[in-house]
Every structure is written in structure tokens, then in C-alpha cells.
Amino acid sequence: MQIVNLKNVTERIIETNNGASDARTREILAALVRHLHDFVQEVHLTPAERVYAIDFLTRAGKFTGDLRNEFSALSDVLGLTAIVDLLNDEGAGQITHGSLLGPFFVENAPLVEYGADLRGDLDGHPVVLLGKVLDKNRTPVSEAQIEFWETRADGFYDVQLEGPYTPQLRCRTFTRRDGSYKIRAIRPTGYTAPMDGPLGELLRATKRNIWRPAHYHFRIQANGFRPLITELFPAEAEHLDDDVGFGVRESLIVRANSGSQEEALEHGMPFPFSTVNYDFLLASSSEAN
Questions:
Q1: What pTM did the predictor assign?
Q2: Residue 185 belongs to what domain range?
Q3: How far apart are CA 90 and CA 33, in angstroms?
Q4: What count of other Cβ atoms lies within 10 Å of the Cβ of residue 143?
């Protein structure tokens, strides 16, 4: 019988999902329905508020496409991304902490060689990022795919620029046999969360800080290891303590070192320039998620 009342509606809905063949699907749906129904009763959600919520999500969908994901940004500012990352990091031991993918990740970035120079004719202080990708025992991980992206000096990602899309400060590359990587780029710039859609509506309503600290994005994948999505934050960046996306972890704050003229020649960089050294530690795919 499908007739429901306030006392039985939650369990009736959960029962309808029991036919799912996958136990994990049943577990997640049951918990989702139970918590969602508890939330509605706790705040005594009105019909008008339910309609507004559906409209809000519908508009978020309209702002989401290949070059921007409004739902990803909402996940960040509501702390959902942070708690998922922290929960999963805790189960895997001493590995590099995860952080935000962000709304401006793009699949199939240009494939470049080790040490590629992404700067082109862009403004910005030159930086060389280098280090290794290692397992928890600090054994090198060769042929790990690194996807890298960052803002321009004006605080915008390439996907936010008007006109036909042209990748800038974004690439895919692979580690060498010794696990090493090297990317030539620029010092990143902090920026505000995108304010032209539902996310901006939420942030204005709550009068929150809207700024993200400057950061470099990385997504690293290798056979036999859990994918790592993370960010590195320059120690001098503003808003490390009030990141709108809750992405900062102490272990992800990095200090840039001033390179010498000899190092500039070695790396093929102008002088002055800076270096950022960071080793990424991956968890095996068999470890807790």
C-alpha cells in the first residue's frame, strides 16, 4: 500500500529502494532519504521553500557545462568536498591530503613534455614547480599522469575568458622513471568565487567571504593508486584562514624559494624566478576510501 502519513512516509520510501541489486546503493539511498526527511521536519520546510530549492538547483544546472561546474562550486562552499576529502584521507594514513577540484577543471588538457613552459606571453612572476610522485614508502611512481591548472595573473582561469576557448596555464604531463615532474608556470593569484549564478546568490545572502587564496591545482592518477585531487597554496597567499571553499590544509601550504641565476639557466627561466618543491604521496587503490 502506497498511502503514506507523517509517521510512515520515510520507511515507505526507503522500502521502495530495497530492490536495488547493489548493497552500497541501498545503503546510500536509505541514509539519504532518512536524513533528508529529518531535515525537512527539523526546519518545517514550506511548499514555497521546496519550490525555491528546486528552482535554485535547476538554475545551477544551467550554469554547468564543459568549462564550469556550478554544482562542484556549491559542494565546495558548503563544505561537502572538504568533509569527503578529510574522511577519505584519514582512512589511508600518511598520504598527501586531498583538496578541491573546483568548478573550472577541464578534461583532456593539452599533453606536454616534462618541464614544459606554460607561460607563453602571459604576465606573472615565473615559477618552476618540481618534485616527485611517490608511494607511501617513498618509492617513485613512474608514468603517473599529472593534470595541472592555475589562474592567470589577473585572477581568471582560461575558461572564463571571452571568445573561443584557448587553454592557458593548464596541461597534462607524466612523471619520469624516477617519479619526477617539472612544470614551468607563474605565481597564481587569488580570486572570488563565481558570483553570477546561484552560488553567488547563496554567498550574498549569507554575507560570507567570497575569496579563495591563490593556489595551484593538481589531479594525479597512476595504475594501482587512488587518484589524488589536491591544491598547493603559497604561504604568502591571502585568505588562507578563510578560504570560501574550505580547501586549505596545513600540509598543502608551500614556500617558494628564490632561484639563482645559475638555476635560471638550468631551468630555462628568466631571472628573477622562484621554485616550488613538493613531493606527492599516493595511497594504493587497495587502501580505505
A1: 0.90
A2: 70-282
A3: 26
A4: 12
